[in-house]
Design brief:
26% of the residues lie in helices and 16% in strands. The longest helix has 16 residues, at 2-17. A hairpin with a 5-residue loop joins strand 2 (87-92) and strand 3. A 3-stranded mixed β-sheet has the order 1-2-3, covered by helices on one side. It has helices at residues 2-17, 55-65, and strands at residues 69-73, 87-92, 98-103. The radius of gyration is 19 Å and the shape is globular. By secondary structure, the protein is an alpha+beta fold.
């Protein structure tokens, strides 16, 4: 147990300090994006709220957000918690209307 706490403390120190010395066993920092040029920005999609989900709306949202992929999230749908900065998520209500959009 104490070894686990020590390892976690060491890893947190590396992360908060912005990196660890060469030869360290910590994981490297995540780069800001994958180099493909796809970094989603949903800040300009507020006008979609209340609109019915259609393939045309999805295509427009992908283009406007610069996303690489789109995930429709309907009520009760289980979704993975993995973060993908190139993915646009559009949450829908029971009437298939857009409630919210966000990247990740």
């Amino acid at each position: 147990m104490n070894q686990s706490i020590g390892a976690i403390t060491g890893l947190l120190a590396c992360v908060t300090a912005g990196g660890c010395a060469a030869g360290s066993t910590s994981t490297p920092a995540i780069p800001p994006h994958d180099g493909t040029g796809f970094v989603c920005d949903a800040s300009m999609l507020g006008d979609l709220v209340g609109k019915t989900a259609t393939s045309e709306l999805g295509t427009d949202a992908i283009k406007r957000s610069n996303a690489k992929s789109l995930r429709w999230i309907r009520p009760g749908t289980m979704v993975t918690m993995d973060f993908r900065e190139d993915r646009l998520n559009i949450e829908l209500d029971a009437a298939n209307k857009v409630v919210k959009s966000h990247c990740g």
